[in-house]
Amino acid sequence: MRFFVRRIIFYLITLWAAITINFFIPRVMPGDPVQAAIAAAGGSISPDAIPALEALFGLDPDASLWSQYVDYLGLLLHGDLGVSFSYTGFAVTDVIKDALPWTIGLVGIATIISFVIGTLIGSGIGWRRGTWADSLLPISTFFSAVPYFWLALLSIAIFSVGLGWFPASGSYDRNMAPNWSWEFVGSVIYYGALPALTIVISSIAGWILGMRNMMVTVSSEDYVTVAQAKGLSERKVLFGYAARNAILPQISSFALSLGFIVGGTLVMEIVFSYQGIGFMLFNAVNAKDYPLMQGCFLVITLAVLLANILADFVYGVLDPRTRQEG
């Protein structure tokens, strides 16, 4: 119990540090949001409108940095991330809510599929090392070195331009209005199939290699030999003893992957023009939309922290040694 309490306290301190850094970074960046808005308008906005823009964006040049920090914490407690500059009139929370489900649905499902398939294949290859299954490793090594954007462009060239099986960009048919009908859901799956396939192929090799190497190490441990000597079935030894211990390092990596799901696969979303949070963050950086950038970074940070908390708890359950004090 003390292990879990210590971890919770540690992550609360980490969360406070992340929120504080997230507050100060936009304020130490060169430039000014109001001047950026005037520049984006081509200088057509009169300088006399600066006070109105500051009021619109919630900026108070006369307030001290400490008071702004206290106000920022107060707004966070109420779930208020400010107003977006590029999405005029829309709260940052609403803008992120619109983009987040697209990223979680695509990148999340693709990451889970690649983790499950890669872990199972890696377990089998590592358990039966020295057989024909090892011939799959060079292929895995090749794909683990392939960057997302190259594979995405290659997929578009083959399956979209060449064969015409999938659309080259977008997240759904723009002739349809978003709804929960089977026709619209089918359109979302159809448009997301190629980006998801790109993510799975690019990331599955890492899971295979990681699990295979751990299985080779674990399968020579004494407790695996004892389990085999006791006459347990091969499946029981494989999953109950070898794979259960070999998967522990994979869990930490998987937790980080789940956390970064919220951030999306930036390059992939740009290549496919997919309306996820990664593509939205890219547009926010180009537009110097500081509140939206700040909100995106905060959501990504929270997702990574929650994923690490989950990994610590699962790790503590699977391996009791991590809960023991030195």
UniProtKB/TrEMBL annotation:
Membrane topology, from the record: Multi-pass membrane protein
Ranges for domain ABC transmembrane type-1: 100-311
Top-level taxon: Bacteria
Membrane spanning residue stretches: 7-25, 102-127, 148-168, 188-209, 254-277, 297-318
Pfam families: BPD_transp_1 (PF00528), BPD_transp_1_N (PF19300)
SUPFAM superfamilies: MetI-like (SSF161098)
Keywords: Cell membrane, Membrane, Transmembrane, Transmembrane helix, Transport
Subcellular location: Cell membrane
PANTHER family attached to this UniProt entry: OLIGOPEPTIDE TRANSPORT SYSTEM PERMEASE PROTEIN
Membership in a protein family: Belongs to the binding-protein-dependent transport system permease family.
Protein name from the UniProt record: ABC transporter permease
Organism expressing this protein natively: Cellulomonas edaphi
